[in-house]
Prior knowledge:
29% strand; Peptide Deformylase; 5 helices; single chain
Amino acid sequence: MKSRALIFLAIALVLASCESNRLTSSEKKLINAAPADSAMRVLSVFNLEDSLFLRKIASPAGNPANKHLQLLSERMLSTVLHPASQGVGIAAPQVGISRRLILVQRFDKEGEPFEAYFNPVVLAASKQLVTRDEGCLSIPGYRGPVERPDVIEIEYLNNKGEKVAETVEGFTARISYTKLTT
């Protein structure tokens, strides 16, 4: 009887974890509120409701092939490239979607493209730290010195759902690390 209860509990836990990867109806509504080339509102720490939302632990993004996540990624790109909120990286919580998805400008690649990291994890960080002035889209108008690792090892799913593990250095490491730890 105990083994049956344990099996039932295990199945319930697996189903619950799968359910947490599904986007909610309110998340889908926010994502679908405008076309892919439309910028989203960037949440600000100066707004109490936004600030509380930004402090929550984000849920897993889910399957990168999901049409809503693909649209979210496109809208996040439109947002980070928009003159009103131009930046080098953006995280889904910054546009009101509490999911583990970030876009990072890859200064270490030709053409400096933006790449989406779904469910990213920092596997290791160098002990060598570099201090540099930083800004944040969710803290508009402020810049200041921040110490960050110069090299990080990260793992994530790309927009095709392929697992990527790589070591990034310099400014790209700073952007990736910032978006994964703030």
